[in-house]
Amino acid sequence: MIVVMKSSATKEEVLRVTDALIKKGMQVQTNKGVDCTVLGVLGDTYTVDKERVGMMNGVDRVVSVQEPYKKANRKFHPEDSVVNVNGVPVGGGTLTVMAGPCSVESFPQLEGIAVQCKASGAQILRGGAFKPRTSPYAFQGLGEQGLDILEEVRRETGMPIVTEIMAPRYVELFSEKADIIQIGARNMQNFDLLKEVGQTKKPILLKRGLSSTIEELLMSAEYIMSGGNENVILCERGIRTFETYTRNTLDISAIPAIKKLSHLPVVVDPSHASGLSYMVESLALAAVAAGADGLLIEVHNDPKHALCDGAQSLTPEAFDGIMHKINALKSIMS
């Protein structure tokens, strides 16, 4: 449940209500907004006399939360959350672009792409060190060597890095080396992994599963947040439908839906959504128009010879052209 305090409530009144709830065995999350303070209450709230709480000084109203996700719920946290990634904000009205190759192939390759992407306006560098592939015979990434290359390029360019984790045993390593830990679509419901990254304070980029509902995505975010890590960024990357022309079907409606249900920032991956490079521009612009907080775009210096997902990768020159249109659209909407 949530307790909405009056705009005139004093700090002492807020503290008194909080203490009363804690004494009943509840966990209380305090969210101070522009107009009022909201207390998110977690636990067996059936044991709480809601009518009595509602009569306490400073309380405006008590609201039951029916949805199974609590910490990710906008009712608990009315204001938009902003995740700080080494000085780069994600959410809160900004548009953050993460760009780079699907897979790290070498230092020269990644450095060259990073320099060009940064010059075009990308703020965060993406690159896969460990790659989940449908075929066990496909390129699986450079592993820890790839992480080392990402670190080196970060030092050269100053760009924070986002890269995908595959298993709980790598959490400590990724916490040390990555700026954002990505949970891929195939691992969205890897609950052991979600619990482990929930014990860190690192920003987490959580991708929607291939056939997952919006509520299932938010419940996966809840696993992370319930562990204490509230630095979660949600990513819509297309879902599996009956259509086979594109790799996936981008669910544009997920952006306003999630923003209504949750306070967490939402970014969109138009590259994986379509699997086709010529569609990336249209889908990226549609995502910005729908209110996305960021984009995750694959860029490769030689897409035809990329070791992974070349068909959906843009050249740096094509990415630069798209960025001009994205910035123009964003300025119109601001």
Automatic annotation (TrEMBL):
Gene3D superfamilies tied to this protein: Aldolase class I, Phospho-2-dehydro-3-deoxyheptonate aldolase, domain 1
Name of protein: 3-deoxy-7-phosphoheptulonate synthase
InterPro entries in the cross-refs: Aldolase_TIM (IPR013785), Class-I_DAHP_synthase (IPR052899), DAHP1/KDSA (IPR006218), DAHP_snth_FXD (IPR041071), DAHP_syn_2 (IPR006268)
Domain DAHP synthase ferredoxin-like as annotated: residue spans: 1-67
EC number(s) from the headed UniProt entry: 2.5.1.54
NCBIfam families found in the cross-reference section: DAHP_synth_Bsub, PRK08673.1, PRK12595.1
Residue ranges of domain DAHP synthetase I/KDSA in the record: 87-328
GO molecular function terms noted in the UniProt entry: 3-deoxy-7-phosphoheptulonate synthase activity
Source organism per UniProt: Christensenella tenuis
Source superkingdom: Bacteria
Keyword vocabulary terms for this entry: Transferase
Lineage of the organism: Bacteria, Bacillati, Bacillota, Clostridia, Christensenellales
